[in-house]
Automatic annotation (TrEMBL):
Keywords: Metal-binding, NAD, Oxidoreductase, Zinc. GO terms for biological process: formaldehyde catabolic process. Residues 197-316 form the Alcohol dehydrogenase-like C-terminal domain. It comes from Ficus carica. This is Alcohol dehydrogenase. InterPro entries: ADH-like_C, ADH-like_N, ADH_Zn_CS, GroES-like_sf, NAD(P)-bd_dom_sf. Residues 1-20 are annotated as: Disordered. GO terms for molecular function: S-(hydroxymethyl)glutathione dehydrogenase [NAD(P)+] activity; zinc ion binding.
Length: 369
């Protein structure tokens, strides 16, 4: 993985300002982990991600090193997790209980600099700017983020800060999709397409909500043993079927599942997920990143069968107001975060961590700085 787009922070200065500027927070990163979105950005899978040099990474936990003018909700020494989908608390969307979108600091892969003055907080050895990534840039010893993108973690659970890293993206995205976006009900039937960390987090969320049947769909058989630990009750490997996946799921669930979750980012998979739900009330949630310009593979008239489809960003969680409560639920064991950490490495082994993800061997590899 050695090339001009390398994601390592070798040669990168820690943010040069003594403090974050107005409404900014500087964080000393203690733990960070790797998500498929980081991998996709490294590979330059879509135009929005092709901005280099850039510091990737968006799942992390750390300690506040300093704060800029106007920051009141966190202070030096606080334990925090950065979030890619911020919450300013002031815009029309933040004030609306129906959405977790933030007009000012929502996820934006095109954003490369800080909102306050349009400049970067990173420089290389020659003093030239290095771009930010997804409001966070956590593959660095220090990072600077807008205060809207920082969530304080209760000091009583600071001993579990390593696990809190997973709340920055993967686990929150998957569990939240089951809890907030779909509102999975006890006794319901669920199909999860793609058993990576996000898909398995969906399964864990559905299990916690009392789903009676959770069908996992993946072409990698090694994911099945991991899935059982997350509550998956049945498995389908599409390469072993002689019929479309949705037909098999309809047979297994007697007409279709109540909820399906597409966690792959593939249009053909999305169509199978949509058709696998029960007519009249089936609900499909899209979580996979679709980087191609192709449109939805659904005919408008198919929506007249009563099936619904929606997307979910960060699991529907309003980061600053709702994530602390979710963190407390995790510490009580409602969601078991330990099951998602399959590997741990020092940060200088980041290339090995990426290879584990590429090979499908890891759910989350936590890197410690």
């Amino acid at each position: 993985m050695e090339n001009e787009k390398h994601h390592s922070t070798n040669g990168v200065r820690k943010p040069s300002n003594t403090k974050g500027k107005k409404m900014e927070v500087r964080i000393k990163i203690l733990f960070t982990s790797i998500c498929h979105t980081d991998l996709g950005a490294w590979h330059g899978e879509n135009e929005a991600q092709r901005a280099y040099p850039r510091i990737l990474g968006h799942e992390a936990s750390g300690i506040v090193e300093s704060v800029g003018e106007g920051v009141t909700d966190v202070t030096e020494g606080d334990y925090v997790v950065p979030i890619f989908n911020g919450e300013c608390g002031e815009c029309e969307c933040c004030k609306c209980p129906k959405t977790n979108i933030c007009t000012k600091f929502g996820v934006n892969p095109m954003k490369r600099v800080m909102a306050g003055d349009g400049t970067s907080r990173f420089t290389n050895k020659e003093g030239k700017p290095i771009f930010h990534f997804l409001n966070t840039s956590t593959f660095s010893e220090y990072t600077v983020v807008e205060s809207a993108c920082v969530v304080k973690i209760d000091s009583s659970i600071s001993h579990g800060l390593k696990k809190m890293t997973l709340l920055s993206c993967g686990v929150s995205t998957g569990v939240g999709a089951a809890w907030n976006t779909a509102n999975v009900q006890p006794g319901s039937k669920v199909a999860v397409f793609g058993l990576g960390a996000v898909g398995l987090a969906v399964a864990e969320g559905a299990r916690a909500r009392g789903a009676s049947k959770i069908i996992g769909v993946d072409i990698n058989p090694s994911k099945f043993s991991k899935g059982r630990a997350m509550g998956v009750t049945d498995f389908i490997n599409p390469t072993e079927l002689e019929k479309p996946v949705h037909e098999k799921i309809r047979e297994m669930s007697k007409g279709g599942v109540d909820y399906s979750f597409e966690c792959v980012g593939d249009l053909d998979v999305l169509r199978e997920a949509f058709l696998s739900t029960h007519e009249g009330w089936g609900f499909t949630v899209v979580l996979g990143i679709h980087s191609t310009p192709k449109m939805l593979p659904i005919h408008p008239m198919e929506l007249f069968d009563g099936r619904k489809i929606t997307g979910s960003v960060f699991g529907g969680f309003k980061g600053k107001t709702q994530l602390p409560l979710f963190a407390q639920e995790c510490t009580r064991g409602v969601v078991e975060l330990d099951k998602f950490i399959t590997h741990e490495l020092p940060f200088d082994k980041i290339n090995e961590a990426f290879q584990l993800l590429v090979d499908g061997e890891s759910l989350r590899c936590v890197l410690h700085l």
